[in-house]
Amino acid sequence: MHFSLIIFIVDVINSRIKYYLQKVNNQQKTNIYMPEQLKNNRLIKALLREPVDMTPVWIMRQAGRYLPEYRETRKKAGDFVTLCQTPELACEVTMQPLHRYPLDAAIIFSDILTIPDAMGLGLKLVESVGPRFERSITNSNDIKNLPLPDPEQELKYVMDSIRLVRRELNGDVPLIGFSGSPWTLATYMIEGGSSREFSKVKGMLEAEPASLHLLLKHLSDSITLYLKAQINAGAQAIMIFDTWGGILKTPNYMNFSLYYMKIICEHLKNEHSEVKVPVILFTKGADKWIEKIVEADCDAISIDWNSNIGQVRERIGKRVAIQGNMEPRILKESEKKIVDEVESILRSYGSGSGHVFNLGHGITPDIEPDKVGILVDAVHNLSRQYHKTK
Ligand code: CP3
């Protein structure tokens, strides 16, 4: 009797110890990414459609040439590619807009063209021309010979930048990692850089669709590895930029662009099921396809200014959050016009969470930095009324 009581007590103590160990273990697992750990978690909450006190805001290309301090650091680096590949400098420019404005997120300073560069194409940014590759993809042999870059080797500089920025942010706001979509990266790889007509990639789509699919599949594999590595390095949300999806006809958009983005989303969801790293999909010029895009396993869609945000919200119901969608050109207007436009977008979205304020595309180099401050303050001040709990 005495002995069995001791056994019982030991059992109880054991199960308590097990319980606490499990609790600590779970905390350690989730602590790295859980929004609770962030001092400002508005972005993650809004992406997950959870209540917030005001609408979060960040700006596509928030670290860029409109900031004099960016131009200084770029001069110090020598050129754009070196700036991307030097983690200390990439970290410095990532932080620059956060020192100026109360933004709700940082986005890692890098480029979508890091993957093709790591595949050996040789990226250069030519002044007033745009990005160019030394080598381009012209046939199926080129595609078969493309390597699959190891994110912690050839792209280690991106992961090192993410680790540095996470340390520098010290939990203030979340850090967004990103990649181009397979289709958008393929356009640059086949055209050899920026393009207006997209004649080469469209030619391959018509004449050799199987080869193009081979390239898109290879890029999907590479992007999946790259984004998983970014998450492991500390990215707390992910954005996929499909800048050129909008040039395709509907069936081609479904088969050559959206199909591969969906596969990437599925892989990201499975791998990180114990921690929530929201994924934002952005196809520029996608208004007519929005119902289809939200069927991908994404948490949010980013929309450009050709969509009406209120109508998009009605069309998609409660499926995903919406990011957007002020026209970048408005930032050239007066303070009053900027504030009016912010107010009009907030009103159009209406009450409740699920909206991340952003531009409909990247900020241009001709914007006065003070205008960005006006925009950010207007979003915060004017949005409170849309988040009052009854
Ligand atoms: O948003 C951020 O602050 C993060 C940094 C970022 C850059 N490029 C830095 C950059 C991001 C998210 C990108 C994505 C990117 N890069 C896209 C998708 C988004 C979009 O704008 O549609 C695309 C298509 C590219 C490819 C690319 N890189 C182009 C077409 C250019 C030249 C365009 C231009 O504005 O001159 C770049 C260069 C580039 N990437 C710059 C920056 C700040 C300008 C570099 C410089 O001259 O210093």
How is the largest sheet built, in terms of strand order? Answer: 1-4-5-6-7-8-9
Termini separation:
59 Å
What ligands can be seen in this structure? coproporphyrinogen III
Helical/strand content category: alpha/beta
Largest sheet: 7 strands, parallel
Helical fraction equals: 40-55%
Low-confidence stretches: 16-32
* Tally of DSSP helical segments: 16
Mean pLDDT: 92
Quaternary form: single chain
| Strand and helix order | HHHHHEHEEHHEHHHEHEHEHEHEH
Strand content: 5-15%
Per the principal axes of the C-alpha atoms, what is the gross shape?
globular
In total, the number of strands is 9
Radius of gyration: 23 Å
Topology:
Blueprint: H1 2-31, H2 42-47, H3 68-77, H4 80-85, H5 87-100, E1 106-107, H6 114-121, E2 123-126, E3 130-133, H7 140-144, H8 156-169, E4 175-180, H9 182-191, H10 199-207, H11 209-233, E5 237-242, H12 250-271, E6 279-283, H13 290-293, E7 300-302, H14 309-316, E8 321-326, H15 335-349, E9 355-359, H16 369-383
Parallel strand pairs: 1-4, 4-5, 5-6, 6-7, 7-8, 8-9
Antiparallel strand pairs: 2-3
Helix pairs in contact: 3-5, 5-8, 9-11, 10-11, 11-12, 14-15, 15-16
The protein binds coproporphyrinogen III.
